[in-house]
Predict the structure of Glyoxylate/hydroxypyruvate reductase A.
Amino acid sequence: MPTLAVAGAYLHNKTVVEELLRRRLPDWSIVRPGDAGAREACVAVCWGQPHDTWQQLPDVRMVHSIGAGVDGLVRDPGLPDVPICRVIDQAQAQRLTEYVLWGTLTYHRGFDIAARNQRALLWQRPANRAASEVVVGVMGLGEIGAHMAKTLAAHGYSVRGWSRSARSLEGIETFAGAEGLGAFLDGVEVLICVLPLTDETEGILSRDLFNRLTPGAKLIHVGRGPHFVEADVLEALESGQLGGVLVDVFPVEPLPADNALWRHPLVMVTPHMAAVMPMPDVVSQIAENCERLLAGEPLLRTVERASGY
Ligand code: NAP
């Protein structure tokens, strides 16, 4: 009987995942590292796996992320040299898009200002501009970012996108690589980050980058916590270079109670809620790759390890 091990320190719904896997793969033994028989596991399903996971799973032939991001795998020094697969889910792209659309509308129409004014009993209309006058920049044009960019453009915004390699998207002005970053940022009023976390992108949301945006620009961040340099974000808010931040992901989650972002009047903190994937869909994608592994067929949604995403 083939064996699959579920390894994840941050996997709150581990039991649910295991139960769904048992139903979808009735001929498989579903275990956790350390369980009897786990050393025979040919598949590891992971999210925030402890570093000693791999010593306990010496026969793994495929590692499957339970989410879209694979930074927790690719950056794990003990990860064996086997294919890595991830989940790509349209429903997730849609939910993340809803989140950034809400943020963009909030900043464009000044709902954030109106909410602050209400608390001060202040009757004052924010500026009312056409969506086409607002330049929105999307960092990352992958499965999720491309969906966001197209949806924002369909809502009338002037959308730009930035990726590592050159991309072409109808109705979107695109830029690529370090050499395209300056032109991409120049004039952006709402910056959305949906990049994967890699050695190249860690710390990218920093003072240098903020200084290239239109003064008072807004940041919507749904990538990964280590993309942003918190001190630089606070400094940019203080100087007015950033006029507002909507952030869903943090280097330490839950965000500690003493973190300054919680109480900053120009910051909206959300608890990594931009997208929660439907677990049955996730398990279905994992199961499909398990079956392919046994049948010797090409795996789907594999990650290019060298690029880090
Ligand atoms: P993806 O399909 O792998 O796309 C990644 C995009 O980022 C690609 O366009 C890629 O460029 C670009 N990119 C990567 N490194 C870059 C660099 N150094 N410079 C410029 N562009 C770079 O990933 P995805 O499925 O869209 O997911 C993106 C990220 O969203 C995930 O890794 C995760 O961090 C985050 N996420 C967050 C949540 C949440 O709930 N907040 C949920 C899901 C995902 P190329 O097109 O040239 O490859």
Remarks:
- Residues 90-109 form the longest helix (20 residues).
- The chain is about 35% helix and 15% strand.
